[in-house]
Write a structure and sequence with these properties.
Blueprint lengths: L1 H16 L5 E6 L5 E5 L12 H11 L5 E3 L19 E3 H11 L2 H12 L2 H15 L21 H14 L3 H8 L3 E5 L6 E5 L11 E9 L3 E10 L2 E8 L9 H11 L1
Helix pairs in contact: 2-3, 2-4, 3-4, 4-5, 6-7
């Protein structure tokens, strides 16, 4: 028995010491209990994973079949993009696919304007929702997660955010449907402009039971990821913050797999 216990301890120490992420959390999706963690209360930049909260506000409160004509604000968006043009009209549902699969910053901006009239009003709703969920160490400044000193979360609260959308939100099925789609093609309302988006979540093909997740990257945040796996009737969530920078893009997948196996 003692040899088995020693072997288990050595295995745990090896796995945890080989994780690249600056902070991480492994959470039971059933009850929110922490299985393993490192600096899970450390406030850090979260990049495009912020778009999970953007999607929560839109999916829970909006009409996915509404159409929206892209506003003047589209010209200020940058980074990961759908490359929408001012005046183009698309459905809210299409913007959500662009938000969660392509991680389109322009889609985030337009969804915020559609739902609340301005970025500021929409972000206020994001922060109010965070408090409702119980995220006391999280603060949003934008709907897309571009670098800002006042825009942050923790590994623990990032896991709690995904757990909410999977287990608690009345619109979890809509979220899972979008985030589990491998490829999605759509056009604007005129049919003249077409878009094709692909799912960036490689974890979905890495392990049996992989359920959903969202990637993120900025120069300040590094590579980030939160993902969920469902197996034998149980849900497990892994969140990673600052998991390498360019040249180390695959670290987040290796870390996720190690922690899920653990």
């Amino acid at each position: 028995m003692m040899k088995i216990l020693v072997s288990i301890v050595v295995s745990i120490l090896f796995i945890c010491s080989s994780i690249s992420a600056d902070s991480y959390c492994v959470m039971s999706g059933e009850d929110g209990n922490i299985i393993e963690e490192k600096d899970m209360h450390k406030q850090q930049s979260v990049a495009s994973i912020s778009k999970i909260m953007t999607a929560i506000i839109v999916i829970e409160n909006g009409n996915l079949y509404d159409t929206w004509k892209c506003s003047d604000a589209i010209d200020k968006a940058y980074g990961s993009m759908l490359y929408l043009k001012k005046g183009q009209e698309v459905s809210v549902e299409m913007l959500l696919y662009g938000l969660l699969l392509r991680s389109g910053n322009d889609a985030a901006v337009e969804l915020a304007h559609h739902e609340s009239g301005s970025i500021e009003a929409f972000v206020d709703r994001m922060n109010k929702k965070a408090k409702e969920i119980g995220l006391s160490q999280t603060h949003f400044v934008t709907p897309n997660g571009l670098d800002n000193e006042a825009h942050y979360t923790t590994a623990r609260e990032l896991a709690l955010l995904l757990r909410y959308f999977i287990r608690t939100s009345p619109k979890s099925k809509e979220f899972l449907k979008i985030t589990r789609t491998a490829q999605y093609e759509f056009t604007d309302t005129t049919g003249k402009y077409s878009f094709s988006v692909y799912n960036h979540n490689a974890f979905l093909q890495m392990m049996d039971g992989a359920l959903t997740g969202k990637t993120g990257f900025t120069g300040k945040a590094g590579y980030c990821y939160v993902g969920a796996l469902e197996r034998d009737g149980r849900l497990y969530i892994v969140s990673l913050l600052a998991c390498g920078w360019p040249g180390n893009k695959s670290y987040k997948w290796a870390d996720t797999k190690k922690l899920m196996n653990y």
